[in-house]
User: Fold these one by one.
Assistant:
Number 1:
Amino acid sequence: NFAERSEEQVSGAKVIAQALKTQDVEYIFGIVGIPVTEIAIAAQQLGIKYIGMRNEQAACYAASAIGYLTSRPGVCLVVSGPGLIHALGGMANANMNCWPLLVIGGSSERNQETMGAFQEFPQVEACRLYTKFSARPSSIEAIPFVIEKAVRSSIYGRPGACYVDIPADFVNLQVNVNSIKYMERCMSPPISMAETSAVCTAASVIRNAKQPLLIIGKGAAYAHAEESIKKLVEQYKLPFLPTPMGKGVVPDNHPYCVGAARSRALQFADVIVLFGARLNWILHFGLPPRYQPDVKFIQKPSFVHGHPDMELLSKWRSNRAMFLELFSKCGSLGQAHQHHLRNLLEMHISGPYARPIKIKNSEVDICAEELGNNVKPAVTLLGNIHAVTKQLLEELDKTPWQYPPESKWWKTLREKMKSNEAASKELASKKSLPMNYYTVFYHVQEQLPRDCFVVSEGANTMDIGRTVLQNYLPRHRLDAGTFGTMGVGLGFAIAAAVVAKDRSPGQWIICVEGDSAFGFSGMEVETICRYNLPIILLVVNNNGIYQGFDTDTWKEMLKFQDATAVVPPMCLLPNSHYEQVMTAFGGKGYFVQTPEELQKSLRQSLADTTKPSLINIMIEPQATRKAQDFHWLTRSNM
Ligand code: ADP
Ligand code: MG
C-alpha cells in the first residue's frame, strides 16, 4: 500500500489548523505563547484570520460575538493555566447569551501531569461549568473528530460555548499525514418546527387578545427571523417591543415599535408572544408588578412579607378612598417599602386597566427547558423562530383578521410614547454645561450612519443610550447582554469590525462606552490601531462608576487626607484624557465638552475612513436618568 508507506509528516499544530479550516472557522482571536503559537501560525497559513489581542478575556468576548454575527463559532486561542482562566469570563458570557463559541486552550505536557508542570491546571474540568462540551482529544488522530463535535455542539440546539484542550506535546508531535482523517464540515443546524395544534392555539390566543404585545429577543436576531417577524408585525398590526439586542430585527423607527412605552406595554399587555427572549431579569421575570398581576399575586405578595399596611391594602384594594389615605402615609415608611406601595397603589387606581387580568404568554424557543420558566405559558412553540413564525403566519392567514389600529391599547401606547419621547427631548435640549446623557446621545443619534453597528456598555451610558440610539438592522447591536458583563465592548467592536470589513465594507462600528466600562479592556485600543479597524469609540465620561465628582470637589477631598481613606469607591480620576490612549497608537483623539465640539469631532471621525478615533465626552459627573415610573428601573439594565 503506497499511501501507508508515505514518509510525509504533519505536526499536531497543522492538524488542528486544518480541522478548523475544514469546519469553516474564519477567525481566531487570541494571545500566543507556549504552547499555542504554532497553531496560530499554521491557521494563518491556511487563510484563517488571526487577530492578536491584549487580554484573553477580550479575545474571548470577540470570538463569541463572531458566533452571534455569523452563525458559525469564532475561535479563541489561549495558552495554558492563566491564559485559559482569563478566557473563562468570555466563555461564561457566551454561554449566558446562547452564542456559539469555540475555545482552544493549550495545556501542560501529558507526561508531566500531576507533577507540577508549567501552568498545570485541570482545564477540561474547569471549563465544564462554562460550556456545553469540554474535552481533550485522546490522540492527534482524534483532533478532527473532537473539533467537529465541538463546532457542531456550539451551534446545534441552544447555541453556546465549547472547549477543546490541546496538551503541549501534541503541538509539535509529528505524525504520518495518512493517519489523519478530516471530518466533513458539519452542516448548519436542522430546522425544527412547532406542533400544528400548538400553532393553532397560539393563533387563536393572538386573535383574541385585547392588549397584545410581541417581544423580540436576541434569539430572534440569531435565528435570522427578521423577514417573518416583520411580516407578522405588519400584516396584523401588532405592537412589538425589542429587548436590547433584539433591537433592529424590525427597525426601531417602525411605527409599530413601542420601545418608548416599554414599561406601559409590559404592564398592561394581556397576551405576550415571546420570540427568543427569556423571562429573566431583563424582562423582569414576567411577573407583577411589571406585568399584569394575576389575582393570586395580590393575595400572596412575597416582597411585602409581614408588612402590616400591605395586609390592609389587599383587604381594601377595591376602595379608592382607602388607597388615597394609604398613599398619604407613604412618607412614614422606609424608602423601599414606600416605593413598592406607591407603585402598587398607582397600578390599582390608574383607570381602565385597574382590573387584574391573567396574562397569556406564548413562547417561541429552540430550547425546551426554557419554556415555562417563571410564568406558566398559555402555549409553547418549540422550534426555530423563523420557521415557527412562518407557521404562525400561515395559520393566521386562514381567517382574515388584524388587530384594530384604533384600539384603546394602541392609543394608550402612543400617548405614553409621545410623553416619554418629549421628556427625553426636553432633557436633551438643556444648554447647561457639562452636558447630560440625553444631550450627548441626541447629538450622536443625529449623525449615526443607518447601517452602523452599535456596541455599548456602561451603566447609565448603556441604559440611556439604548433609548436614544436607534438600530435599523438586525444583529447590529452588541451590549452587556444577559450576564450584564462590563468589559465586553472593545472585544465586540473588534469582532464586528473584522466581520464588517469582510462582508460589508464601509460600515462603521460605533462603540459607546462609559468611562468605567472602557477601563476594563482599554488596552485593546492598541489592537484596534494595529489592524486599523473602522471603529469610533465614544467614552461618555462622568468621572466614575454610576457617578463621579468634578475636579474641584476632588481637590477639596484630597486636601487633608490619604485618597484611599476618603475617595468614594465609585470615583475615578476626574478629567481623565482617555483620548490620549488612542493618540498613543496613532489613532485620532478628541476631548469634548460642548455639543458643538461633539458634533464637530463626530463629523471629522466619520469623514476620516483611514483611522480609528476616540472621542472623550465630558458630561455632568452627577447626571442620571430621567425620572422613572418604577424606582427599580433606575438601576436595572432595562
Ligand atoms: P434577550 O436577552 O434578547 O431577552 P435571551 O438571550 O434571553 O434574549 O433569549 C434568547 C433565546 O432564544 C434563548 O432562550 C435561546 O434558546 C433562543 N434561541 C436561540 N436561537 C434560536 C433559534 N434559532 N430558534 C429559536 N430560539 C432560539
Ligand atoms: Mg462613568
Note: Residues 295-309, 348-356, 631-638 have pLDDT under 50 and may be disordered.
Number 2:
Amino acid sequence: MTPVPISTDNGHYLSSDPLDLKALKLSGDQDKIDNGAHQVVVNEDYNGNYKFAAIHEAQVSRAMIKRYYTSMYDRAISDIVIIGAGSAGLTCAYELAKNTPPSTKITIIEAGVAPGGGAWLGGQLMSAMIIRKPADGFLTTLGVPFTDEGNYVVVKHAALFTSTLLSKVLSFPNVTLFNATAVEDLIVVPDPLAKGETEHSGQRVAGVVTNFTLVSLNHGTQSCMDPNTITAPVIISATGHDGPMGAFCAKRLASAATGWDKPGSTKEHPDSGRRHEMAALDMNRAEANVVNKTREVYPGLIFAGMEVAEYEGLNRMGPTFGGMIASGMKAAHEARKILES
Ligand code: 48N
C-alpha cells in the first residue's frame, strides 16, 4: 500500500497503513477516529500480553459529551420530574415507568453523586433493612430476597434493595437520571385554572430549576452561576428530610409560593394548621400517615416519602422503609391521574 504522507508541524509522518491511529490523529480525521476506523486488536491475555482496542482520547470524551448533553437537550421538556433518588423517589419512578406508555419521559434529578438517598443502610448505620407488611410485595416484584418475620420482613442488606431497585429503574429506556444535579428552585407560573389546597393557587408548579450540585452548594462563593431548567406538568418531590437540601420543595413551597412562615417555624398555617417541621418518631402513626398524605399538595406538585412528613408535620418513623415504598407507589398513581386527566 503506498505510504500516506501526513503533513505534521515537524515535517511529514509517513504511514503505509491508512488506518494507523497515529496517522489518523495527526491527520485530525476525527470522524474516522470516532467511528473506530482504526484497527481493533484485542488480546485478553493475563500473562503479560493483555491488549485493549486502541482508542483516541477524543472518542471517550465525545461518547460521554454526546450522550449527556443529548439527554439534557431531550429532557428540557419532560413529562414527569422526580426530585430525589431515594427509596421513595426510585419506587415512584419504577411504578411510573411500569405503568405509563414507554414514550413518557420520566426524569430523575438527584443531588448526590450516588443515588439511593438514605436507603443504602438500615437504621443507625446498621445494614439490614426492615419493611413492614404489606410493603414486602414490592420486594417480590423486584425479586429482592428477604426473611419473613411475620408482621415484617428483613432484607439482609439495605444496599441489596437499593441497588436492585436502581438497576431496574435505570433499565427502563424512558427513565433518565441526572445525578450530582440539584434542584435549586421551582418554576411556578400563573395558572388561573389551577385549583389547589391553598388559597394561593392560581399558580402552578411547571418545572424545576437545576444546577450541578457543587454549583448549587457554592452560590455564595461565585456570582451568576446560572442554572438550567426542566419543564414538566408533574413534579414529584421526594427529597427526604435531611442532607444539605432535604425537604427541598416543602421548604421552598413554604417560603416562596404560599408566603407561609419560614420552614421550621412552629407557627401553624392559619387555614390548614400545617407546620413545617417533622414531629417526633412514632412508627405506627408515621408510615401510614406518610402514605395517606402523599398527594398533590399544590397544583402540579406531589410530595412523596419523608418530604410528606416535613410538609405535613407528621411523625417520623425511623429505620423502617415500607412507608417510603408505599408513598412512592401512591405518588406514581397520583401523577398518572394528573397526566390522564
Ligand atoms: O432517602 P431520602 O433521604 O428520602 P426518602 O423520602 O426517599 O426516604 C427517606 C428514608 O431514607 C428515611 O429517612 C427513613 C425512612 N427514616 C426516617 C426517619 O424517621 O428518620 O432520599 C432523598 C434524596 C437524596 O438522595 C438526596 O440527595 C436527594 O433526595 N435530594 C435532592 N436531589 C435533587 N435536588 C434537591 N434539591 C435534593 N434534595 C435532596
Note: Residues 83-89, 109-112, 117-119, 182-183, 238-241, 243, 245-246, 248, 281, 305-306, 316-319, 321, 324 surround 48N (CB under 6 Å).
